Amino acid sequence: MAAPDRPAPTLTERRKAATQQEIALTAARLFAERGADGTTAEDIARAAGVSLRTFYRYFRTKEDAVAPLLADGSRQWIELLAATAPGTPLLAALLDSARASLTPAPGRPAENLAWTRGLLRAMPEDPALRDVWHRIHHDAEAALRPVLATLAELPPDSLDARLLAAAANTAMRVAVEAWAAEDTGPTGAADLAETAFRRLTGPLTDPS
Fold first, then answer.
1. Per the database entry, where does the chain bind DNA (predicted)?
2. CATH class of the domain comprising 11-63
3. What burial letters (b/e) apply to 149-182, b meaning 16+ CB within 10 Å?
């Protein structure tokens, strides 16, 4: 049975989401340009055109402000995987969804990838930013498990499904981190993700 359609977001919800995303993009830009130590919550609020009180209504800390941007990439990847046609080989599903989610396109502008690269380059010097990044991937792994279990025809709570989600999530994280450390164009992230998934082909596609 098809899942019921979700109700369309209200105007207030859309405005809140737009404000949150604007703050996240502004925080990412400032962190990439100045580093986390050189950026305050006040700086982010001012550049985003909101009050400091509004900033703290959405985020606990300045580092938390980039979470929506980082989570958006994982969300798009998981949505693309979930939309995979039944019967698609698992490796093909992983490769196609990873390349689509890491390639600039409408809704996935190259600018967002550039800010993500700047954030990842700033993370070694900022434990709070690293915490946000790893929290995003912890949540992504949990969201991946039922999607990949369906594609691989595995019980969602099985050890194999858990390992599959962990391996796939880690492959994407390592690929994006490796891309951020290099001086390649935006398509380099997709190329590295493909390499990572191909190297994990055996464990990913043959849990037995």
1. 40-59
2. mainly alpha
3. bebbebeeeeeebbebbebbbebbbebbbbbbee
pLDDT (tens place) for every residue of the chain, 208 residues total? 334 455 777 877 888 888 998 999 999 989 988 888 899 999 999 999 999 999 999 999 999 999 998 898 899 999 999 999 989 999 999 999 999 999 887 767 777 788 888 888 888 888 999 999 999 999 999 999 999 999 999 999 999 999 999 999 999 999 999 999 987 776 788 999 999 998 886 655 554 5
Number of CB atoms found within 10 A of residue 46's CB: 15
Q: What does the CA dihedral 131, 133, 134, 140 come to, rounded to 10 degrees?
A: 140
The residue extents of the domains of the chain are: 11-63, 65-205
Question: Which candidate, 205, 196, 190, places its Cα nearest to that of 148?
Answer: 205
Query: Do residues 45 and 51 touch, judged by C-beta distance below 8 A?
Result: yes
**Rounded to whole angstroms, how far apart are CA atoms 137 and 126?**
17
Tokens of 123: 């993370």
- CA 195 vs. chain centroid, Å, equals 18
Which CATH superfamily groups domain 65-205? Tetracycline Repressor, domain 2 (1.10.357.10)
